[in-house]
Specification:
The complex is a heterodimer of chains A (125) and B (322).
Chain A: E1 4-6, E2 10-15, E3 18-23, E4 28-29, H1 31-45, E5 50-55, E6 61-62, H2 64-71, E7 78-84, H3 89-101, E8 107-110, H4 113-121
Parallel strand pairs in A: 3-5, 4-6, 5-7, 7-8
Antiparallel strand pairs in A: 1-2, 2-3
Helix pairs in contact in A: 1-2
Chain B: H1 3-20, E1 27-28, H2 36-61, E2 67-77, E3 83-86, H3 88-93, H4 98-101, H5 112-124, E4 131-140, E5 145-157, E6 164-175, H6 180-191, H7 215-230, H8 239-246, H9 250-261, H10 265-283, H11 288-294, H12 300-311, H13 315-321
Antiparallel strand pairs in B: 1-5, 2-3, 2-6, 4-5, 5-6
Helix pairs in contact in B: 1-2, 7-9, 8-9, 10-13
Classes of the chains: A alpha/beta (125), B alpha+beta (322).
Amino acid sequence: MRNYFENDYASYRFHDGVLHIVYHQGVSIDMEAAVQIVKDRMFLHEGRLFPILCDIKGLKEINKSARAYLAMEGSTLIKAVAVIVEPPVSKMLSEFYIRTSNPPIPTQTFEQIEDALAFLNEYKE
Amino acid sequence: MSTQKKHRMHQINQMLLEMASGNFFYRLERSAKNDHLEAISLSLNMLAEEIQEAMVHQGYVNSNNTFVDIIQMCFVLNKDEVIVMANQQACNLLSVLPSDIIGKPFSQFLTENSEITWQNIWNSFIGQKSFEMSVSLKFKSKASLIIPKICHISRCHDKNNEFNKTFILVIHHTLRQDPLDRDLVKGITHFSQNQKRPSDPISYLPKKTKLRLSFEDIHKIREGHNIIINNLEMNFPSLKIFALQLGTNEFKLKYGFKELYGTTVFNFIKQERMRKSKMMVQYSTQSLKSIAHMTGFKSIAHFSRTFKKHYGCAPSELRRKS
């Protein structure tokens, strides 16, 4: 199983049963990017379910159609998502997303990585 | 307050004014800063997107309104990429006078990133007599607000290749707000004046019994929506029972669901089952049989049939291709 992967928008790394996704600095996500991001992630999953730690501190914006895609199609094979943010911008982005796009999997915002990992712990195999 | 901060506050105020006037297609320019003003800019941009979408959706579900595509902006460029003609609406939206726009290069009205995209396109088609394409570009108004749009670009030429112009059209999807229907009803009223004089012509408008949904009703319907998304493998009960489970009635659920999500409950279930199964077929290693079960199908034959009807190819074909 591949442990590390990177595309134009984010890097993916498995660590201790959790898939860590870190968005690159200053990226904007549109529909095309969202599809690529999900496709690459699914490839790494090899059909298995994982909890995800998603660091969006570098993310600049996600447009409406990309938000909808990430919330619906993008939730496939995910047990839970902990979003790592840095207030105020990425925190607002995450909370806006959770509130309006309503992802069907447990999704929570965290400022500290330890809290995020503690939250994901109960979803680990 | 620093000048830069003042400028950003001014832009936010401009954006709020535009939104208050019903213009939800403007966006604020974003920076790499991580401060409260930037958080507000981000939220305003996303809020405008949400409202814009909700308004089109309203038009979609409310059959009394039809929605239309109008040409919002139109530019004609000469062979040097200079604007030779533009419609009045383009001037209004970019808050410039026609004299400020004519004779200027088109790229001057784009954001920095879009300028690069545009220059690449323009350079790659230099010398071509004709071409046609669509591209997403961001316009920048004089007040520094951004208008992201899909632009349809086409270049035409005449018989002698002398007249060589490039057209840029920007289409906007909007609700039709014309009083035609009312005029029509008025016409009918005049026509039938001899028979019976109506006290008020407006009362002759076709009345659609519109159910008012309370906040609580909306909340219950949203809960139903979430239950569906999270339980696609479930065998769904009848609408009547589902409504009772949610603490509402069949009529409210049926009407309200369509009002909120633009589709019927059962079409929505089917659509979400298809969406989930497509992702699973493409990317998971689960057998088609278990995907069928996970998305609420009793038999794989039924699943395959529905899938093929929906996507035009059988799940097994898609799996092979993936």
